[in-house]
């Protein structure tokens, strides 16, 4: 509500999300991951696990690593507390009674924003909670369940845009979005974020030498930033990514709009100011592309709404209309 109220205060129109089928969702994510998310809470309850206060949410009991399997085929265990680790790669992304409803509603919000852009708006923003950029095709984590930005990019691609750019300005690398498009040349992914090598999530991805694979070689650009980096380094990194998106020839843009790189945010060591966020939006707008902005992180409740509103004000600087 803080973000929505801030946007209303800044004069943005707010529209209700429409309902959408699962077609695009199932082309981005493994249908079995979607099935798991849809059903795992009910299976958890049916197994009697909620009787123990320590298990009032679904959390993996065992996460099978490549070293554990050592070449053996992956099989989904029949016990739900073990099966949870087949689809979730961390122990902080819990599933409760309302998780699927919220995650699936975020997809509807995202696709409504895509629809607005496809029908004439230059900029539309999807206020999504939970966020999504840490979800790969077949595994969720990082407090994310379905990858809204990837779904937006795929929807734009299937609606006639031959090349789409996803630019991720969340403080943390969007390992899920990168993984989904890593072998594709039609969707560019660029991210500026706190250096995972300095001890920050997602730890195993987000390094500068990750440039794509096979057909996707050159369509992935990571610019990690040292803890303590502020506006000057941030905006220089963003300029590199914008240049990469322009070189890629994108005709539409998805912005993974996290505001957790802000100086006051408790979830990252970056020091981006309010002015830095507005300028980030302004520079992204300079691409001149129809744009869908999708909410990712942002955890300082007193400032998150204003930071989003300022970023959108920057993004709107080249936009005839926005929602």
TrEMBL record:
The protein's required cofactors: Zn(2+)
Transmembrane regions listed in the UniProt entry: none
Entry keywords, A to Z: Hydrolase, Metal-binding, Zinc
InterPro entries cross-referenced by the UniProt entry: HDACs (IPR000286), His_deacetylse_dom (IPR023801), His_deacetylse_dom_sf (IPR037138), Ureohydrolase_dom_sf (IPR023696)
Domain Histone deacetylase, residue spans: 13-314
Classification via Pfam families: Hist_deacetyl (PF00850)
GO terms of biological process kind: epigenetic regulation of gene expression
Gene Ontology terms, MF aspect: histone deacetylase activity; hydrolase activity; metal ion binding
UniProt record similarity statement: Belongs to the histone deacetylase family.
PANTHER family, per the entry: HISTONE DEACETYLASE 8, HISTONE DEACETYLASE HDAC1-RELATED
Protein's recorded name: Unannotated protein
């Amino acid at each position: 509500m803080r973000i929505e109220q801030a946007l209303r205060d800044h004069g943005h129109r707010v529209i209700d999300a429409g309902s959408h089928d699962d077609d695009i969702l199932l082309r981005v994510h493994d249908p079995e991951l979607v099935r798991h998310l849809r059903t795992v809470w009910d299976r958890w309850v049916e197994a009697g696990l909620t009787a123990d206060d320590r298990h009032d949410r679904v959390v993996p009991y065992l996460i099978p690593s490549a070293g554990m399997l050592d070449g053996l085929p992956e099989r989904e265990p029949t016990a739900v507390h073990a099966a949870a680790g087949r689809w979730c790669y961390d122990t902080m992304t819990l599933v409760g009674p309302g998780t699927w409803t919220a995650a699936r509603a975020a997809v509807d919000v995202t696709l409504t924003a895509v629809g607005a852009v496809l029908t004439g708006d230059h900029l539309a923003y999807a206020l999504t909670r939970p966020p999504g950029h840490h979800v790969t095709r077949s595994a969720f984590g990082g407090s994310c369940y379905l990858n809204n930005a990837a779904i937006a990019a795929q929807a734009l691609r299937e609606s006639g845009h031959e090349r789409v750019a996803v630019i991720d300005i969340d403080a943390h690398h969007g390992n899920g979005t990168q993984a989904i498009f890593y072998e594709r040349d039609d969707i560019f992914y660029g991210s500026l974020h706190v250096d995972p090598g300095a001890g920050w999530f997602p730890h195993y991805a987000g390094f500068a030498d990750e440039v794509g694979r096979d057909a996707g070689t050159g369509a992935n650009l990571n610019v990690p930033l040292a803890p303590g980096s502020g506006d000057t380094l941030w905006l220089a990194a963003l300029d590199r990514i914008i240049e990469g998106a322009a070189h890629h020839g994108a005709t539409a843009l998805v912005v993974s709009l996290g505001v957790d790189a802000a100086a006051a945010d408790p979830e990252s060591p970056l020091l981006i100011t309010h002015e830095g966020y507005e300028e980030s939006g302004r520079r992204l707008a300079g691409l001149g592309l129809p744009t869908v902005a999708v909410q990712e992180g942002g955890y300082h409740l007193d400032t998150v709404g204003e930071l989003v509103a300022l970023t959108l004000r920057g993004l709107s600087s080249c936009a005839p209309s926005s929602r």
